[in-house]
Amino acid sequence: MSWNFDENISIFQQITEHISLEIVSGKYKAGDKLPTVRDLAVQAGVNPNTMQRALAKLEDDGLAASNRTQGRTVTADQARIDELKKQFAKRYAEEMIAKLRQIGLSNEEIIKTVSEELQ
Question: How many angstroms separate the CA atoms of 19 and 109, rounded?
């Protein structure tokens, strides 16, 4: 996933979501070592302090753990990762349904449209 930032949302929030998505998508698996703060900051083109804050938030959320000798790792709690994946799926589905309702589709039309796209 590329690091494209929306100027209307805080960079800190976007970084946190970006890395969370990389975890739930499997780029970083349970127990994997995460890149260093400095490496991630360079990749994203942000200040290391901002990246540090985002990674600390991931720890607070239970998605990452810090170990002084090994750096940060993705949580080994696969259930936590699966829970977050469901939260993302629900949020994206709600956003999609809201947009389809805005253009006037009924629930039946939404189901038919989504079903057709899945085939």
Answer: 34
Residue type (1 letter), 71: G
**Cβ atoms 72, 56 nearer than 8 A:** no
Q: Are 21 and 1 in contact (CB under 8 A)?
A: yes
Residue 27 has a pLDDT of 95
Residue 71 pairs with which residues in a beta bridge? Answer: 67
Q: What would the pLDDT profile of 26-82 be if each residue is shown by its tens digit?
A: 999 999 999 999 999 999 999 999 999 999 999 999 999 998 888 899 999 999 999
* Terminal CA-CA length for the chain: 25
Which residues lie closer than 8 Å to 6 by C-beta, 6 or more apart? 14
Structure tokens at 17: 């979501």
CA distances from 54 to 24, 37, 98 (A): 16, 10, 29
Residues 6+ apart with CB under 8 A from 61: 16, 20
